[in-house]
Write a structure and sequence with these properties.
heterodimer; A: 335 residues; two-stranded antiparallel ribbon; two-stranded antiparallel sheet; 6 strands; disordered N terminus; B: ABC transporter involved in vitamin B12 uptake, BtuC; cell membrane (chain B); ABC_transp_permease (chain B)
């Protein structure tokens, strides 16, 4: 029952990413009717939409962690390298004959540790998030290469492959896993006060500290969570390509994740987050990627439209453009 | 007396860096036979010419409190762009270079305008610029393009003779850009504006400084440096490659920070950047001389060194603040 003039604009924050996603799907469906076709093969579902869900699940996972980091007013550029490290750990341990449980635990621990280092540097030592995570972004790829000794380790383990290529009740496993992560995170953040704490720290760290919040700890935890998500994404990536590729795994993932978060309506300046928006944003960027591949755009060129789109979206969210747009339709905004 | 003390204190980060370079070089010279030679030093400059040139531009951007993550990609783009123009369009190299420099500066100015006019975070816009330039580079071709041109051969064959060794054209270019950066950064009104904007943008604005023009120009200048670095890279490798300079932005930032320039802006020195280039080069050369360590150790050690320097900077800055409040 709010009567604030901008209540319409904030009424449904996931409206724009949803419209974008719908437009992209529609565009694809018009030019390529097979785009929406889902077939059942051996009782399992296949088709482009399923592909998008499977391929997009890793970005969704990384973007989920990134959402919380950005909500605290930070940024994590190291996620791609953490994906590579976690994948390298998976490859080395599995090939070294260790059990699946040990491997998964170690890969997740590597991600959490990386996040812990970021959190320590940023929350305790007060480094700028861009710089602290940039260090791990570059040094981390070196670490990943060190773990696999510069080789691409081939993984031949059917159980491990199941995470990314398997089916559960005719549905692909990885989107199910990632979807569960989203629901759990959403509940953990919104059914408890943790989500509010994160937003408070991101909005005004000093004020939240004066209000009695352990601001540094909350910030550090966001980075640990983000590292953990990247670690899980590393497991899914290694499982998907059946190999640990320290050089290419997680490449460009930081941009995709930041893109998903920003498109999803979470402000880069921190202070509020939208987990559902992030999920839609990640699906949007994966649909865009798949569309470009279908159009025959080579993978190496794919970053160009993405970069243009992220510039466009940031422009739309900037104050100056916002004012200008409102000036164009003053009546509608007031209504 | 006290002014001398503050003068010394201001130069302290620079002196620390010089000391670390001397120590690093000393240890390497002591450990590896043949490391201590004039040739090692001149090849330090040649081998790091393009990283160094990019670092000069990055220094000025960081002076103004900004950051540019697109430099590595701009190097890759310029390299493949000029190589393709020369080899496949048979364009005269100077014309191709001019076009490359124009493209790089243009992208820089574009990013600077977005950052200034729409108050968007520099890292986000330059990250987008990085993907834009890298994608554009691969758009041209994904293959490496070898350059066979008489002018190229003449330039790469050139050496300014010193006593026992010579300075290559790339090294000379680096030294020239360092001088230019020194002049711009420390002896022009523009340089002072950069430091003022980096120190406190609001104050700079209230003082009537042209904040917008300064910010846009410095990103344009950095784009110019990055594309010049791309051209030097084609001289160095004798070819253009779209994947050239991946991860180079961190190397450039590391060099600047190791040189004692504050990442938060407002304070720094180009002389520190020269020292940063030498330290960075010494690490690489030492790892190469050692032969037992793989190339990815360079990445790791640069990261660790960067971290150490930032922490040292922070402690120094905190001490300065503490002293000021006591006095």
């Amino acid at each position: 029952m709010s009567s604030k003039p901008d209540s319409i604009r904030t009424a449904n924050p996931v409206r724009w990413p949803l419209i974008g996603l719908a437009a992209l799907v529609l565009l694809n469906a018009v030019f390529n009717p097979a785009f929406l076709k889902i077939t059942v093969l051996d009782g399992n579902l296949y088709g482009t939409p399923i592909d998008i869900l499977v391929q997009g699940s890793r970005t969704m996972l990384v973007a989920l962690g990134m959402t919380l980091v950005i909500a605290t007013g930070g940024i994590d550029l190291s996620v791609g390298s953490v994906v590579a490290i976690s994948g390298a750990v998976c490859g080395t341990l599995l090939v070294g004959g260790h059990g699946l449980a040990v491997t998964l635990a170690a890969a997740l621990a590597a991600g959490l540790l990386a996040g812990g280092i970021n959190g320590l540097l940023i929350a305790r030592l007060g480094l700028q998030p861009i710089v602290a995570t940039l260090i791990l972004m570059v040094a981390g790829r070196g670490v990943a290469q060190l773990i696999v000794d510069g080789q691409v380790v081939i993984i031949a383990n059917p159980t491990f492959e199941y995470f990314s290529n398997g089916f559960f009740l005719s549905l692909p496993v990885s989107p199910l896993l990632v979807g569960a992560m989203f629901v759990l995170t959403h509940l953990a953040l919104r059914q408890t006060a943790v989500g509010l704490f994160i937003e408070a720290v991101g909005d005004n760290e000093k004020a939240s500290r004066f209000a009695g919040l352990a601001a540094a700890r909350i910030k550090a935890l966001a980075y640990v969570f983000c590292g953990g998500c990247a670690g899980l994404a590393g497991i899914l990536t290694a499982s998907n390509i059946r190999a640990a590729d320290a050089y290419r795994a997680g490449e460009n993932m930081e941009l995709d994740a930041i893109f998903a978060v920003v498109v999803g309506g979470t402000a880069l300046s921190g202070g509020r987050f939208l987990i559902l928006g992030t999920a839609i944003g990640a699906l949007l960027i994966q649909t865009l990627t798949t569309t470009m591949y279908n159009l025959g755009v080579p993978p190496a060129v794919a970053p160009v439209p993405k970069a243009l789109l992220i510039i466009g979206v940031s422009l739309l969210q900037s104050d100056r453009v916002g004012r200008w747009l409102r000036g164009l339709w003053p009546k509608k905004e007031a209504a | 007396m006290s002014s001398l003390a503050t003068r010394f204190q201001r130069q302290l980060p620079l002196l620390t860096t010089a000391f670390i370079f001397a120590a690093l070089f000393g240890v390497a010279a002591f450990s590896y036979e043949g490391f201590f030679s004039a040739r090692t030093i001149t090849s330090l400059l040649t081998d790091n010419a393009f990283v160094g040139i990019a670092a000069v531009g990055m220094t000025l951007v960081i002076f103004a409190g900004g950051i540019d993550l697109s430099v590595g990609a701009v190097i890759g783009f310029t390299a493949i762009f000029t190589a393709t123009l020369i080899e496949q369009k048979h364009m005269a190299p100077p014309l191709a270079w001019a076009l490359g420099l124009f493209a790089g500066s243009g992208l820089g100015a574009f990013m600077g305008s977005l950052i200034h006019f729409f108050r968007l975070p520099p890292f986000l816009i330059t990250l987008a610029g990085m993907f834009l330039a890298r994608g554009a580079a691969f758009w041209i071709t994904t293959e490496s393009v070898g350059i066979n041109h008489e002018l190229y051969n003449r330039i790469t064959a050139y050496e300014l003779p010193l006593s026992e060794t010579g300075l290559s054209a790339s090294a000379l270019m680096l030294l020239g850009m360092l001088l230019l950066g020194y002049f711009i950064g420390h002896h022009t009104r523009f340089g002072r504006n950069l430091l003022a904007v980096g120190g406190n943008e609001q104050s700079a604005l209230l003082m009537g400084l042209p904040v917008g023009a300064t910010k846009i120009s410095v990103y344009a200048f950095n784009g110019f440096c990055a594309s010049l670095a791309g051209i030097v890279a084609t001289l160095y490798t004798g070819s253009g490659n779209p994947s050239l300079g991946i991860g180079l932005e961190l190397d450039a930032i590391a060099i600047v920070v190791i040189g004692g320039t504050l990442l938060t802006g407002g304070r720094g020195h180009i002389a520190g950047t020269l020292l940063g280039i030498l330290i960075f080069g010494t690490i690489q050369a030492a790892i190469l001389f050692d032969g037992r360590l793989s190339s990815w150790w360079v990445r790791i050690s640069v990261g660790v060194l960067l971290l150490v320097f930032i922490l040292v900077q922070r402690t120094l800055a905190q001490q300065l603040v503490a002293r000021k409040t006591v006095a």
